Structure formats: structure tokens, C-alpha cells
């Protein structure tokens, strides 16, 4: 596996592949990779001749007081894992490569409406940073397909909306959430949990599963949101939101809407903020 850090090098490699008639899969990440990330590589590897992964901790998607400075940076470990997973090129740009005029003076992409709720409401500006960096990465890598995990469900929908609205040629694919044996969704932030918190963290997934089962039994979604929030609070979480939404656009469902829905949770456990979701279909 080759590691490149500048725009000219990644573009030259892509040109060589294109000249050979090969298509390109892409997995953008912020590093500190785990088995969930490697599953995205596996999907890209199955659908493309060549695969690029990026590792870039993007400053514009972190708000004030969030964990940008302490976000784990483990490039050597990531290189070894990506090579084993079948990655052809790791693109690990510096901030100056992605933001040549500095993050504060960068062109910014705002995806309206779908970013106004849930994570967007809790973390103002977060999805502007996500959309901007993903658009920049797409411009540099020019992939045929790009793979994102379903754990960051709203992020996936924001990127799908951006690609459709800007008529970008990349096909966005999603990969299922990978979970530990106790149900906790794999995340780089899980390592922030204390041993005691780690034993309680699977309550998020258990709550989502209970919401889905009760919904299938005919319970109203509004009541399920309230009950699930109370359950998490009793377990020691501080929820930012517990919501049932339409999977397509994250709008609130109608009172009699029973199909195409997803439950989403964001909650703090100690100093760690965890997110998860579960489709109801």
C-alpha cells in the first residue's frame, strides 16, 4: 500500500488507474480505524478495481469545546490495518492541503433542511464541515463509489443529498453498522469510556431494539421516544435526542406512518458522547 499526502500525488495515481481502465472506490475516515472501518474497505474492494482510503481529522466539523485536539491520531496503526484490508492508497493530507487558505477562510458547503435537526441542531455547523471536507475529498480522489457506515446515519443522508443536489458522479454506498458482541456500535470514541461506563454503554442499542419491537406491536412513535429517553436517563445517560424519523429525509413521521422509519439516539455517558440508530424495517 502506498501512502500519499499531497494533492498532486493522489491525482497522479488516479490518472494512472483511469488510463488502465480501472474504477476507483473510496472510504473517507478520520483515522483511529477499527473493524467497522475495515468493513467499509471490504465493501469498496468488492465493488471497485482500486481502493483509496483517506485519514484526515477535519477541524471544520468540530465545534467549540469538542474533542478535536484529543481525537486519537494513530496513523501507523491505521496504515497497517488498511494494508491488511486491501487498500491500494492511503491519502493522509495535511490541513494545508485540504484548506489552502485556512479552515476559517475556506469555501463552505451547507446542505439545508436535513441538517437542521438532530445532530445538526445539537452541533451547529458540524454538517457544514462534513459536507465541505467530503466534497473536497471527492474533488481530489474522483471516485466512482464512496462507502460510508450507517452508524452515522444522518451524515450518510446529508452526503447523499449533497451528491444528488450537486450532480456529482460518485455513487454513495452504505455499509451496515458493526457491533461488539454486546451490541455497542463500534466507534473510535468508545475508548474514552471507563470500564464501568463500557458495561452500561450497550443500553443504547438495547433501548433501540426495544423501541423497534414496541413499534411493531403498534405503539405510537411519540410515546416510544419519551419512554426510551426516560429509560436511558435511568441508566445514567444524558440524552441529546431520542427520535423516530423517516429514514429517507429525517422528517417527523405522520401519526399513522408505519414504514420506512428509523430510531436515532445521541446520549452522553460521562464525558463521552455516543450515537446509534436502528432502522425499523
UniProtKB/TrEMBL annotation:
Q: Name the enzyme's class.
A: ligase
Q: What is its EC number?
A: 6.3.2.1
Name used for this protein in its record = Pantothenate synthetase
Single GO molecular function: pantoate-beta-alanine ligase activity
Q: What else is known?
A: The reaction proceeds by a bi uni uni bi ping pong mechanism.
Q: Which organism is it from?
A: Luteibacter jiangsuensis
The residues listed in the UniProt record as binding beta-alanine, with positions renumbered to this chain, are: 61
Q: Which family does this protein fall into? A: Belongs to the pantothenate synthetase family.
Main localization, broad class: cytoplasm
Which reactions is this enzyme annotated as catalysing? (R)-pantoate + beta-alanine + ATP = (R)-pantothenate + AMP + diphosphate + H(+)
**Keyword Hydrolase on entry:** no
- Alphabetic keyword roster: ATP-binding, Cytoplasm, Ligase, Nucleotide-binding, Pantothenate biosynthesis
Which pathway does the protein contribute to? Cofactor biosynthesis; (R)-pantothenate biosynthesis; (R)-pantothenate from (R)-pantoate and beta-alanine: step 1/1
What role does this protein play?
Catalyzes the condensation of pantoate with beta-alanine in an ATP-dependent reaction via a pantoyl-adenylate intermediate.
Q: Does the keyword ATP-binding apply?
A: yes
Q: Which residues form the active site?
A: 37 (proton donor)
Amino acid at each position: 500500500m502506498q501512502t500519499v499526502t499531497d494533492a498532486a500525488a493522489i491525482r497522479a495515481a488516479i490518472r494512472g488507474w483511469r488510463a488502465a481502465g480501472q474504477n476507483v472506490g473510496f472510504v473517507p475516515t478520520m483515522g483511529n480505524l477499527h473493524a467497522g472501518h475495515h468493513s467499509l474497505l471490504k465493501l469498496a474492494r468488492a465493488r471497485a478495481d482500486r481502493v483509496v482510503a483517506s485519514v484526515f481529522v477535519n477541524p471544520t466539523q468540530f465545534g467549540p469545546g469538542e474533542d478535536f485536539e484529543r481525537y486519537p491520531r494513530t496513523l501507523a496503526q491505521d496504515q497497517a490495518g488498511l494494508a491488511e484490508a486491501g487498500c491500494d492508497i492511503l491519502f493522509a493530507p495535511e490541513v494545508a492541503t485540504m484548506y489552502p487558505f485556512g479552515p476559517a477562510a475556506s469555501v463552505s458547503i451547507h446542505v439545508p433542511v436535513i441538517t437542521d435537526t438532530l445532530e445538526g441542531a445539537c452541533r451547529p455547523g458540524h454538517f457544514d464541515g462534513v459536507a465541505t471536507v467530503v466534497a473536497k475529498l471527492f474533488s481530489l480522489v474522483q471516485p466512482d463509489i464512496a462507502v460510508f457506515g450507517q452508524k452515522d446515519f444522518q451524515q450518510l443522508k446529508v452526503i447523499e443529498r449533497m451528491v444528488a443536489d450537486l450532480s456529482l458522479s460518485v455513487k454513495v454506498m452504505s455499509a451496515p453498522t458493526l457491533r461488539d458482541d454486546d451490541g455497542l456500535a463500534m466507534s473510535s470514541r468508545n475508548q474514552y469510556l471507563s470500564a464501568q461506563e463500557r458495561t452500561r454503554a450497550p443500553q443504547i442499542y438495547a433501548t433501540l431494539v426495544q423501541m423497534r419491537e414496541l413499534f411493531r406491536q403498534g405503539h405510537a412513535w411519540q410515546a416510544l421516544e419519551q419512554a426510551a429517553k426516560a429509560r436511558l436517563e435511568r441508566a445514567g445517560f444524558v440524552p441529546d435526542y431520542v427520535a423516530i424519523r423517516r429514514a429517507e429525509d429525517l422528517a417527523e413521521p405522520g401519526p399513522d406512518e408505519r414504514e420506512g422509519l428509523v430510531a436515532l439516539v445521541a446520549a452522553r455517558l460521562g464525558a463521552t458522547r455516543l450515537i446509534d440508530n436502528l432502522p425499523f424495517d
